[in-house]
Amino acid sequence: MRNAQGSLKNLLALCFLAGFVALSSQTSTPCALREYPAGLVCVCNATYCDYLENPSPENENEFVIVSSSKGGLRFDTTSGTINASDFIQVVDYNESLENATQGKIVFEKAAPRTVTIQVDREKHFQNITGFGGSFTGAVSYILDNLSQDVQDHIYKSFYSPHGIGFNLMRTSIGGSDFELAPWAYNELPENDTTLSNFTQLDSRDEKRIEQIKRLKLVTNVENLRIKAAAWSPPPWMKSNNKWTGTSRLKEEYYQTWADYHLRWIELWEKAGLPIWAISTGNEPSNGVIFMFFAKFMSLGWTPRKQAVWVSDNLGPTIRSKYQDLVIFGNDDQRYTFSFWFKMMKAMRSDSVDYLTGLSVHWYWDEIFEPAFIDVARKEMPDKIMLVTESCIGDKPWQSAVPILGSWKRGEKFARNFLQNLQHDFNGWIDWNIVLDEQGGPNYVSNFVDAPSIANMTSLNEFYKQPMFYTMGHFSKFIPEGSTRIAAERTNVNVDTVAFLRPDGSVVVVVFNSGYASVNVEVRDKKQGSIKINIPQKSIHTILYN
Ligand SMILES: *[C@@H]1O[C@H](CO)[C@@H](O)[C@H](O)[C@H]1NC(C)=O
Ligand SMILES: *[C@@H]1O[C@H](CO)[C@@H](O)[C@H](O)[C@H]1NC(C)=O
Ligand SMILES: *[C@@H]1O[C@H](CO)[C@@H](O)[C@H](O)[C@H]1NC(C)=O
Ligand SMILES: *[C@@H]1O[C@H](CO)[C@@H](O)[C@H](O)[C@H]1NC(C)=O
Ligand SMILES: *[C@@H]1O[C@H](CO)[C@@H](O)[C@H](O)[C@H]1NC(C)=O
Ligand SMILES: *[C@@H]1O[C@H](CO)[C@@H](O)[C@H](O)[C@H]1NC(C)=O
Ligand SMILES: *[C@@H]1O[C@H](CO)[C@@H](O)[C@H](O)[C@H]1NC(C)=O
Ligand SMILES: *[C@@H]1O[C@H](CO)[C@@H](O)[C@H](O)[C@H]1NC(C)=O
Ligand SMILES: *[C@@H]1O[C@H](CO)[C@@H](O)[C@H](O)[C@H]1NC(C)=O
Questions:
Q1: How does pLDDT run across 271-308, given as a tens digit for each residue?
Q2: Contact 166, 521 (CB under 8 A)
């Protein structure tokens, strides 16, 4: 028995070495792990940052598994053979074992639970538009303070295929709360329906555009899609003549506000960054009922009033020049989602026809079930559905200050990505790609966490949080044009979602949030069986042909 185990172990180690040799010829660099009180981050500086060249199975018999864990795995790659009779163990990161077991393969003694995931690549669901993050004024400010090399590593970490392969980006039309001060175009002169003072870009936008162009250059991102949303018009267009509080758009400025959007799109395009999409406005409920909670620039809309504006002004104005620009509706929390479009439609039936996308923010998802989004999806199956904002630290009971190394926060992203993808979402745009140690800058101190945190004291390091990697387990491996396929699990010990990529290969994301290792068998009718043992508190992406 001992001998049999030993020789099997050698065999497995050999399999691993074969994979290791193949990978070592690529330009991947491992994570420089650093421990903070709450957990582990990867440290990047001007001369060093971790990347993973996208692995792919060498042949039909091989699968590749990329792993991250609370214990310290960060996109660690292992490969194995399909139809092997034993479970290949993905060993959790353990520094003291670093030199002893080059291969991350040992034989499991105790019998852990087993979960079978049945993948059916014939059963198709939604297609993927992509994944992304946001380029706010705060992001722009932070980047501007960092050296070019550090900036480039931030761009590449998020948008290069060797990073986490983002292709979507959200930005604000004028300001948002993540700014040094509120701002909009044409604040002066007041009551100016011709927007006579909005003829060129603000220096803050010029800076942002210059940075995004640099991002495109250094990352080689294919098909960067920029989605924009306005937080607030200049105060004179609003009923309360203020940046925040209860407000409505004054009816005499309905057309002006539509023209404002068109002008902004034209100016960005002229500056070299075509706009893929806009929304009807960030979180309209903040200016109706949640102004005590959201003290930042907002414009209140009820769905009925917004339907009139979209139908009479925004829709026709945008379509007069941009037939294919995506217009996202709602851009607010899940609890508004089920009634918002219904009420718009009841007011003006053509208003929802102008909307080619539906977007939602994740902030109350733990309370409001996915049923809220399913209703809208069922009614409007052809619209692009994206989560367009997510972050942690917005709630009074959460630490607003970033928690460096929090695996728990990483898990929250994994759980929510899985849920929304299982509910037919086409993609996800996270909030600020980088913030400072306070979770800002934010002009109303609405500090939150972010997937990367820059050291604004030394200005020469940034830290990639577990959230960065858990998002990356989806964004990096599920490119635009992938199709979700059926993946049924036999029990709840792990959660999963699977995709067929445009290159014909299959991606299965497997998430273990429990405190024990789990045996996972992925069964694919066409390819056979993949057996892995995954450690506690870990997430994995399996790739095979
Ligand atoms: C940058 O990070 C690398 C890897 O952790 C380290 O070896 C190097 O000393 C760091 N450079 C500076 C200037 O801190
Ligand atoms: C790491 O490995 C050592 C030696 O096998 C073991 O004693 C220790 O418990 C392990 N640590 C973790 C966190 O698994
Ligand atoms: C592993 O080996 C390297 C190089 O020999 C050494 O510097 C390092 O301290 C070793 N790590 C452990 C945990 O023993
Ligand atoms: C996904 O894309 C494919 C290929 O473009 C298309 O045939 C299919 O209808 C799309 N599926 C959905 C649900 O939109
Ligand atoms: C960032 O740069 C601005 C000028 O561009 C400067 O005023 C500010 O002090 C810098 N902030 C930090 C934290 O270095
Ligand atoms: C135009 O806007 C700028 C600020 O962006 C302001 O300084 C200037 O006074 C405005 N011009 C007029 C005519 O109001
Ligand atoms: C703009 O219109 C408002 C409301 O009619 C008025 O109170 C205000 O004085 C006007 N501002 C200017 C500069 O004319
Ligand atoms: C940022 O850099 C400063 C100066 O090197 C250092 O004292 C501080 O601990 C760093 N911050 C973090 C979060 O590591
Ligand atoms: C694995 O086994 C199944 C069932 O015997 C077979 O259909 C499949 O072709 C095998 N896969 C590979 C990659 O050999």
A1: 999 999 999 999 999 888 776 677 899 999 999 999 99
A2: no
- H runs (alpha helix) in 98-253: 137-145, 148-159, 203-219
Distance 525 CA to ligand 9 centre (A): 9
The rounded distance, in Å, linking the Cα atoms of 225 and 11 is 46
What pTM was computed for the model? Answer: 0.92
Q: Determine contact, residues 201/267, Cβ cutoff 8 Å.
A: yes
- Whether ligand 9 lies within 6 angstroms of the CB of 82 is answered as yes
Q: Whose atoms come closest to the Cα of 35: which ligand?
A: 8
Instruction: Evaluate: CB of 96 within 6 angstroms of ligand 3.
Output: yes
Residues in contact with ligand 1 (CB, 6 Å cut-off): 32, 43, 45, 47-48
Q: What is the pLDDT of residues 353-410, one digit of tens each?
A: 999 999 999 998 888 889 888 989 999 999 999 999 999 998 888 888 999 999 999 9
Q: How far is the CA of 186 from the centre of ligand 6 (A)?
A: 7
Kind of pairing between the strands at 452-454 and 461-464: antiparallel
Is the C-beta atom of 529 inside 6 A of ligand 2?
no
DSSP 313: I
